[in-house]
Structure formats: structure tokens, C-alpha cells
Amino acid sequence: MRRARIALVLLVLVAAAVAYVVWPRARPDPTRLEAPGTMEVTQVDVAPKVAGRVVALHVREGDRVTAGQVVAELEREELEAQVRQARAGLAAARARLRLAEAGVVLAQAQTEASVAQARAAEQGARTRVPQAAEAAALQAEAVAAQVAQARAQVTAAGAALRAAEAALRGAEARVRAAQAALERARDEARRAEVLFREGAIAAQQVEAAQTAVVTAAAQLDGARAEWDALRQQRDAAMAALRQARAALAAAEANQRTVSVRRLDVAAAQAQVRQAEAATEGARAGLVALRQREQEVAAARAAVAQAEAALALALAARDQTVLRAPLAGTVLSRQLEVGDFAAPGTPILTVADLTRAYLRVFVPETAIARVRLGQPVEVRVDAFPDRVFRGRVQEVASRAEFTPGNVQTREERTKLVFAVRIAVPNPQGLLKPGLPADAVILTAVEP
Question: What's the rounded Cα separation, in Å, for the pair 281 and 240?
């Protein structure tokens, strides 16, 4: 009996071995490559570039939006104030530029007139030198003309000095005003820092107060530079007045002491030297003119800086209106009206459901069969009777270990390549997060 059982067992084992060798076994289909994955869609967070409280939300979860559609708004009162401040600063900078340009034009005209007058006087004096011996009879007339010219120079120099002193007084007033504005800005900055440490205001307000301090300091520097230039102009005018008075005194002395018959070449030469000195004095005005031109360049730079500040303020104000970056569906609202949004904090998430994709992982032993553009059949449990058509859109160039969401430890230690499959989803049936099974038709040429 025992032998019969042993013989029966051996017979069964032999039959099983023969069946294993003879019976055809199922082999993987080389034309199809199966891989599971999860559906994803292209989604973008709508986040502001500036901080502010949300005052309006124009869409809800599930709403359709178009690219560029206004979806949310932030408070903008503070930014509007910054825009007005920047515009006022630009207007002030342009006014200073116009004033500086007018000063250059006036200084240039005065300098050209003074140089021309001095050169004419010098040329006249040089002409009188060779004629001194032969034109003794003209001595009295020449001295009288010299006295009249010197008096005119004294009058002109006095008027120029009074104008320079008036301009200097105005510059002093502007320096005092700029100093007062700087002190106010510093007080505001210190108060803003205290409020910021107490949590009463935002950091942007502190930065704005500090920017106001920098601006006020720059305005004070500009006012001081203007005062220095006007002071130099006043000193030059005083020097010109002293020179003109000296010339007048010399001319009147010549008129009293020199007679027509005692005019000689030495007196004519002295007049030449005096005219040369007048010419040099007139040329000294060119230095003041160069300084005025530098003031114009500084004013133009200030205008450019103010224009940039205005453009920055306008750009920040425009950032309070948030628009949809693409056409799609609102997936979620992270904030509500009244919430405070920091820069970069997502307020909404918009997804383009028509551009779905599936990311699967192909073993390294099978990646050689996958090519870009190959057709893919995608199935999801939500629509078991429907096949969605897609194509291989991207194949990773580097291998990685199977992601940790794979169940077994053995599978997680295998090297795989990530493959992205684009799946058209015009009806929006494929939702993000749906499990899906993909079959890559490797036998079909892309």
C-alpha cells in the first residue's frame, strides 16, 4: 500500500514536470508596456507681489476663468499715497530742472556779454598804445569814455551783486526748509520703526519712511549745493564790483590828473593791462557757468530718479489687481476677503483641466522601448469603459529609485525612469489625483 502511494506521488510529479515543460506559459507582450500613475493637470498659484489685505474675490472654487481676468484685489490706499508722493517728487524735480536750465541760460548770456565787453575794452586799449604819441589831443575824450565805461561797469556789477544776494537768500531759505523736512522725515522714520516693532504697521511702511528720509537728505544736499554755487556767484559779483569800482577810481583819477597834452604811451599801456585784467575777470564767469551746467546735470539726474520712483510706485499699485495667469478652472481659494496676503502667498489656485498629464515610472529594463510621441491608452476607474488617448511627452534622462508610494520594499529599490504622458482632456473628465493605468503602445512608430 505504501509503495503504491509512493508510485502515485512520483507519477504526479513526473506529469507536473512534463506539463510545465510542454504547456505554453504566458509571456509579456513586447508591443505593450503597462504602468500605473496618477492624473495631474497644469495648475498655477495666483499670488501677489505686494503685501495687502484682500478686499475683493471675484471667483469661487469651480469657476471658469480666462487668461487675464481679474480674480482678486488688494487694498491700495497706501500705494495710491506713494504714487501721489512720487508724482509730487517728480514735479518738484522738474521744477528744479527748469530753474537750473534758466540759470544756465542767464549765466551764459551774462558771461558772453561780459567777455565781449572786456575783449572790446582790451582791444581798444591795445589800439590806443601805438596811437598815444600821435593822438594826444584825444586823451581827454578817451579818459571821459573810460570813466563812463567804468561807471557802467560799477552799475552793472552792483545790480549783479544785488541779484546774487537775493538768490543766495532764497537758497538759504530752501536749505532751512530742506533741513526741517529731513528732521520731519527722520521723526516719521523713528516713529514707524517703533510702530513696526509693536506690530502696528507693515514693514513696507517702515521702508517707505526710510526712503522718505533718504529723499529728504538728497534734497537737503541739493539745496546746500545750490547755496554753495550761489555763494560763489555772489563772491564773484562782489569781486567784479570791487574791480569795477577800482577801475572807476582809476579812470576818475586819470580824468583829474592827466591832461590831454600829458597823455603818453605809458598811460596807454596801463590801460591795456587794466583791460586784460577785466577780460580775465569776465572769463572767471565761465567757471560759474560750468558749475551751473553741473547743476543742470544733477537736476536731470534727479528728474530721472523721480521718474523711476513714480514708475516703481505705479507698478506696485498695479500689483494690487490680480489676474488669472491662464484660462482654466479655480481649484481652491486659500484666502478670503479680509485676510492679509503677504508677497508670494497664494490666494487662488487655477488649473487648466484641458491639459492633463500622467506621470508613470518605467523600469530600466524597458525604457529602451519608450520613445517620444508614442501613443498611449489611459484608463481610469471612474470611467471603466472608456479609453483616453495620449502620447509620450517627456522621458527622464536620469534614472531614479521607485518613489516611496510603491507598496513593497523590493519595488522601491528598483531603478526606474519617469515618463510624462500628455492626455487631452477637452471635457475636463480627468481630475487631478485620479489613479490611472497607462498602456504604452511601443510597437507603434511616433
Answer: 7
DSSP classification of residue 391: E
Rounded Cα gap, residues 112 and 214, in angstroms: 39
What is the 3-state secondary structure of 284-302?
Answer: HHHHHHHHHHHHHHHHHHH
Structure pTM?
0.44
What is the Cα–Cα distance from 110 to 391, expressed in whole angstroms?
Answer: 81
Q: Sorting pLDDT into bands at 50, 70 and 90, what band is 23?
A: very low
State the cell numbers at 398.
536620469
Grid coordinates given for 373: 510621441
Nearest residue to 137 (alpha-carbon basis) of 270, 231, 262, 12: 262
CA distance 157 to 155: 5
The grid coordinates of residue 311 equal 514708475
Among residues 363, 378, 387, the alpha carbon closest in space to that of 435 is found at: 378
DSSP calls for 332-386: EE---TT-EE-TT---EEEEEEEEEEEEEEEETTTGGG--TT-EEEEEETTEEEE
State which H helix or E strand residue 37 sits in: strand 32-46
Is residue 295 within 8 Å of residue 226, measured between CB atoms?
A: yes
Instruction: Write out the three cell numbers for 10.
Output: 512520483
**Candidate ranges 20-29, 110-119, 283-292; pick with highest mean pLDDT:** 110-119
What dihedral angle (degrees, nearest 10) is formed by the CA atoms of 215, 219, 224, 227? 170
Distance CA 124, CA 20 (A): 132
pLDDT of residue 403: 67
pLDDT of residue 139: 65
Alpha carbon separation from 18 to 22, 64, 147 (Å, rounded): 6, 65, 143
Distance CA(293)–CA(288), nearest Å, equals: 9
